[in-house]
Amino acid sequence: MEQLKGRIIYKGKAEGEALVTSMPISFYGGVDPNTGEVIEKDHELQGISIKDKILVFPQGKGSTVGSYTLYRLKKNGVAPAAMINKETETIVAVGAIISEIPFVDKVDVSKFKTGTKVSVENNTVTIT
């Protein structure tokens, strides 16, 4: 078990299976807000659903509409359980806050592997 500390973007508690990518994510145009599936062409998570996962990625990218896309994911029941970033930016931060998705950044994302069990509680991330 390993515990990491980060910066709280949106406090909360969640646990689940890690879904990890080394590539930035654009929620607007990159993730289907109705299914939670990554649809960005040539993305390493293309075709995979982020629903109920602990989504680990370096940072977001793309349009400010990405914040609203995260909100739509949450309203449609297909949002990630929590998100972890190396360094977040405003689009993803606002999306997490308005969607009430637990979110931490300033975490070494290289320590995560897809499929491992992860819990997030406020600024503490536990990998089991």
Provide the number of structural domains. Answer: 1
**Broad shape:** globular
Q: Any idea what the CATH superfamily is called?
A: Phosphohistidine domain
CATH topology, what is it called? Answer: Glucose Oxidase, domain 1
Strand arrangement within the widest β-sheet reads 1-8-7-3-4-5-6-2
* Highest-level CATH class: Alpha Beta
Description of the molecule:
This protein is α/β, with parallel strands linked by helices and 128 residues long. It has a single domain, classed as Glucose Oxidase, domain 1. It has two helices and eight strands, in the order ββββαβαβββ. α2 links the parallel β5 (82-85) and β6 (103-105). The mean pLDDT is 97.
Question: What brief labels describe this structure?
Answer:
128 residues, alpha/beta, Glucose Oxidase, domain 1, 8-stranded mixed beta sheet, 2 helices, 8 strands, 28% strand, globular
Write a short abstract of this structure:
It contains 2 helices and 8 strands. It has 128 residues and is of the alpha/beta class.
Topology:
Elements: E1 2-5, E2 7-10, E3 13-20, E4 54-57, H1 65-75, E5 82-85, H2 90-99, E6 103-105, E7 117-121, E8 124-127
Parallel strand pairs: 3-4, 4-5, 5-6
Antiparallel strand pairs: 1-8, 2-6, 3-7, 7-8
Helix pairs in contact: 1-2
